[in-house]
Amino acid sequence: MVRAPRKSEIADIDWPGVLKKYRFSKNMKQASLAEDLNVTQAMISRWESGAIAPGREMQKRILAMVEMETLSTPMVGWRQFVTDQPAIAAVIDPDGRIETVSVGMIRETGIARGDFEGQRIDEVFSGDLLKLFSWLSKTGFFDERVETVESAERYCFHRPDGAEDSFCVHNMHWWRRGEDRRPRWILTGARVDEAELDALREEFGGQTRVVPVD
Amino acid sequence: MMDTRFNTSDIYWPAVVRHYRVSAGLNQTELADRLAVTQTMVSRWEAGGAAPSRRVQDLLFDLFWADSATISRDVWLQRIAHNPCMVFVVDQDGVVETASRGFARLVGKPAADICGRRLDDLFQGDAVNLFERLHNAGFFQGRIAGAESAERYVLRDDKADSFFAHGLHRPVFMPGPRILWLASGSEVTEQNYQDVRDRLGGPNVLRKAI
Q: Least CB-CB distance to A213: which of B19, B70, B75?
């Protein structure tokens, strides 16, 4: 996860060390790093020698670049890829336990990561999503009989302050096997308005439909 | 106009081979075994002394795919077309090859009217700037492992409608061999967009391949 550094952390950072370590680990020349950061090669040289420190905005930029762990390899773990999605996404096991949720899910619901992960889906949501889960189970999704499913739901949940909240989501679901070979439900979605939810349900002939594979 | 002066059709094999090998946790001998070549050959590719043969280029890209996906490329492309989120695939000329249903919804055009068109024909501003930045950094040559960004997508039409988005960008290794840009993201509020830009210290952050 990328995380914004706290002010006190930034003040203590050894900028020549951070820059050189990043550059050497990538086998990059100063000119190449300069290009990535949109500065001159001379500026990189001055930062690396410790003659001057990068400005405030540039410090954030450098840290974001260095800390972008998830994007550092093409073979990033699939769970991490779900976690980092700006869109609504989650990984859920066949028992309905939420293993991870995306940045987008946290942003849209306002529920903290720790209040999702390890919880059962019925401990966080009510209504449509639970109907979806039982439909998936009945249809053989977790037995790998169905590849991709589309659905339209109203997500109903409690905000951290206890108030009930809900919004409409157009979802797509598929599965992949986890490390223990059991299938995991990968949920992705985007918020839509009420009219779009109704239109989708009309199109699907209900809440869900199996996406045909040609 | 988008800047496509640089010839990006040539894949930069030292970065592609080394980055794949290191991130898959293989040493040169192990990768050589998987490709049925000698360790010396892998070493030469990584040093830029030689490029892999066409056979090995395709094999490498197949390995890339097999390591990161459980479905075929065809099923994957089909799945993108149905995706409710913002997802699109763009080639090195800036042409949209695949647009998700969610992206089409945001743009307000059917996916069929987005696919086959150049990004700078559809949008102005941030989206085009992002493409140029990726392109010029050698994204389509395999020099970039990933990027994160916050964009305002402004349509190039009479109304100049726009939306804000937070995106993740990764290369996809396709037969050819060629590298495509996979963008996945979400529409966000202007405040979210500002927050992401603030965290990134700018509109986007690129991560070089090893």
A: B75
